[in-house]
Give the backbone structure.
Amino acid sequence: MPGHPLWTPLILLAAMLLLSALSAAARNQEITLQLALELSAEGNTQAAALELRRLSLMAAEPEQQAGYAWAAAHEYGRADSWETADNLLNRAEQHAPQLEMPVLLLRAESAAAQRNLAEADFYFQIIRDNPRTDADLRRYAARRGAVMLTRMGDTTAAEQALATVADEDNGLAALEHYRQGRDKKPMLGGLLGIIPGLGYAYAGEYANALRSAILNGLFIFGMVHTAQHDQWGAFAAISFFEVTWYSGSIYGGLDATNRFNRRRQQSCLDGIMGQAAYSPDFKQLPLISLQFEF
């Protein structure tokens, strides 16, 4: 019976055991989170993600489960394990729909890392156009979306994306400078490489151009000299190496042209992004707090 004298100590003992178990569980979660933070700071992102994933399974409330799942997805993304990150984002989205914007941000980064540029821009556009989006997140999404569009060759749409937020003069200037320039033609670079060094010079790699011209010139001189003195063994050896260097001049002109185009585009992308970056404040977990730099 509840009023029996034996029940009181039993109830007290059960309460003490329950409080002790809850305290131990809370302490275990605290230690696990501290370990995850240290692993993340050390760059051991896979291990940090595993600890955060463990915390997601240990959490009692759906919002807490979602917060830890998102953080684990972020760490898996840093480790370039985007497929696993996407699965955890599904869990975060299911448990806490209010995390829509942080989830979309990581989905966009995942698509970008996997070269799905149109999909990445789609996510960045949703973030940018949502009236509830934080101003810093909107600004970051505008820049990242512009980068995706520029990589796809649509600089007009990239300009429109940047125009949706204020104070993006540097990015707009980088786009305008990029549009005013011209890509080199790889096929022309290869054809010019028929004359040793000229393909490199066309791509603006003058040191490589000079090196190619000198080396091919030396080998050609050696071929002529050995042929004039009937040194056919040496002629054959020098000719073999000259074929290698000469074909390298042709391929090098083509490759140098592609490098020029990549450098030109990357310079534009760097101008668009500037110093923009974000990082989650894991000390706020299981709440998701993003810190931006521009």
Observations:
- The chain is about 75% helix and 5% strand.
- Confidence is low (pLDDT under 50) at residues 17-25.
- Residues 219 and 242 are 6 Å apart (CA to CA).
